[in-house]
Amino acid sequence: MRCAVLGDPVAHSLSPVLHRTAYELLGLDWTYDAVRVPSGGLGDFLAGVGAGVGAGVGAGGWRGLSLTMPLKREVLPLVAERSADVDLAGGANTVVVDGGRLRLDNTDLPGAAAAVRERWDGEVEVVTILGAGATAASTGLALCDLGAREVRLLARSPERAAETARAVAAHASGPRVTVGGLDDDPVHGDVVVSTIPVAAQTPSLVRRCEAVPVTFEVLYDPWPTPLAAAAVAEGRVLVGGLDLLVHQAVLQVEIFTGRPGPLAAMRAAGQAALDARVALP
After folding, report:
1. What pLDDT shows up at residue 53?
2. pTM score of the predicted model
3. CATH C-level class of 2-106+243-279
4. Backbone angles phi, psi at 179, to 5 degrees
5. What Å distances lie between residue 36 and 145, 157, 196, 253, CA to CA?
6. Distance, CA of 230 to CA of 122 (rounded, Å)
């Protein structure tokens, strides 16, 4: 069977390393590749995998797809069948191919909660999220699952944060959600989540995050980011992008194969690949 991660850019993705490791240890003769699919191209790609040739198999042997930016929200009008987490987050990172049917799921949400709890067992009541895209929605909802009652979204264009603010506010706990500017608004709380690119992590922003005990950096390439490096240097708790990637990938493996993903082995493979990149001149 065939699986892949789709997005643009996607060449940097460690998902192939994680999934291939899992399939090998599970004794499955499956493939998993990175496929560049730019914005606007997902519909044509899905049309080519959805024509089923057998139970659980799409055209060409396709079984599952991982989605990264910019496709997590673009997929929503293309596939009707979806999990409750997809509707809650307003985005999907997983497409399951089952014969002629496609269905969506979101493993970012439970993956983010698991990643935080692995590194931090303290209270999560107030959260600041840098950025306001699909990943900000998933991580915000995950932190509400862990107890957050106040979520602050800081965006470069606050007016574009409305969709994410609505998604987080719809959590069953009824959190208070506010929106501010990324350039100068204060950062406070128990956890600061960064979903923004390295170029936006200015020295001023890094300094504004110093008082928050836990930094959750969703990026893993390039690594370390300015926010991640500062958290380590100052002895604060760091939840890294690899943590999130591994936990959501373990859940994807289980969805695709019906068998639990080998967390420790997948993490070790991902860390080795990441270390090799960092070591390059």
Report:
1. 39
2. 0.92
3. alpha beta
4. -125, 135
5. 33, 27, 21, 21
6. 20
